[in-house]
Write a structure and sequence with these properties.
Layout: H1 8-20, H2 23-36, H3 38-48, E1 49-51, H4 69-76, H5 78-81, H6 86-104, E2 106-108, E3 110-112, E4 119-121, E5 130-132, E6 138-139, H7 151-154, H8 160-165, E7 170-172, E8 177-178, E9 185-187
Antiparallel strand pairs: 1-2, 3-4, 5-9, 6-7, 7-8
Helix pairs in contact: 2-3
C-alpha cells in the first residue's frame, strides 16, 4: 500500500502556504476539513475546545448561537416528528438533548485578554499570567523625545503609530514609567467579551 503521508518537499511547501495564508482562508479550510472528516473534527475539538468545568475565565455566549435556539428548533420540528414512531421520536429527542448538553459543557479553549491583549488558554489561566498597565499611556511632554517635533510638520504625536514607533516618548500615569516598560500590574487574564453572532431564522 503506498505511503499517503506528504513528502518532505510537500510538507515544507504546505507550511509555507499556511504561513502566508489569510486568517479567513485558514478558518474556511479548517471548517471544511472538519466537515469532511470526523477524525480531523475530533482532533480540532481536542485542541480548540475545553470543558466548562476546567475554565478559569468568564464564560461568554458561544458565537453563532442564540439563547433559546434549542427550544425554537424543537417547535419547528414538531410536525415532521409527528409522523415518526414513538421509539424514533424518543431517539430524536435524546439526540438533540445530547447535542445541546455537549454545546453547553464545552467552549473555546483560547480567548483574548482585555487587559494585555494576548491570547491565553482558559484552562491554564493562573494568577500572575497577565502583566499590564491599567492606565493608557500619555504623551510625555516634559521629556526630551518631542523637543524637536513640530506636529504641523512632522505629524500628530498622540497616535497608536507613534506609541509603537517611539514608546520612549510616552509615559504610563499608573507607574510613571515610559512606554517601553513592562506592565506594573499582574493578575489573571480577563476574557475580552465577544458579541454573539445571531443565527438567521
Amino acid at each position: 500500500m503506498p505511503d499517503s503521508s506528504p513528502s518532505e518537499d510537500n510538507s515544507s511547501a504546505l507550511q509555507f502556504a499556511i504561513d502566508g495564508a489569510q486568517p479567513d482562508r485558514l478558518r474556511a479550510t479548517l471548517s471544511r476539513l472538519c466537515n469532511d472528516s470526523k477524525d480531523i473534527a475530533r482532533a480540532a475539538e481536542a485542541i480548540l475546545l475545553v470543558p466548562l468545568d476546567r475554565s478559569k475565565a468568564r464564560i461568554t455566549p458561544t458565537a453563532g448561537v442564540e439563547d433559546g435556539n434549542a427550544d425554537r428548533n424543537d417547535d419547528d420540528s414538531d410536525e415532521s416528528e409527528s409522523d415518526q414512531s414513538p421509539k424514533d421520536q424518543l431517539a430524536a429527542v435524546e439526540a438533540k438533548r445530547k447535542a445541546v448538553h455537549k454545546l453547553q459543557r464545552q467552549r473555546s479553549r483560547y480567548a483574548m485578554c482585555r487587559n494585555c491583549n494576548e491570547e491565553f488558554n482558559i484552562a491554564q489561566n493562573d494568577e500572575g499570567g497577565c502583566v499590564y498597565h491599567p492606565d493608557k499611556s500619555k504623551v510625555d511632554w516634559d521629556g526630551d523625545a518631542w523637543a524637536d517635533h513640530d506636529e504641523d510638520c512632522h505629524g500628530q504625536i498622540d497616535t497608536k503609530e507613534m506609541r509603537r514607533d517611539y514608546p520612549d516618548g510616552f509615559i504610563y500615569p499608573c507607574c510613571d514609567q515610559d512606554g517601553e516598560s513592562e506592565g506594573c500590574v499582574t493578575n489573571r487574564h480577563i476574557e475580552r467579551v465577544q458579541k454573539a453572532i445571531k443565527k438567521r431564522r
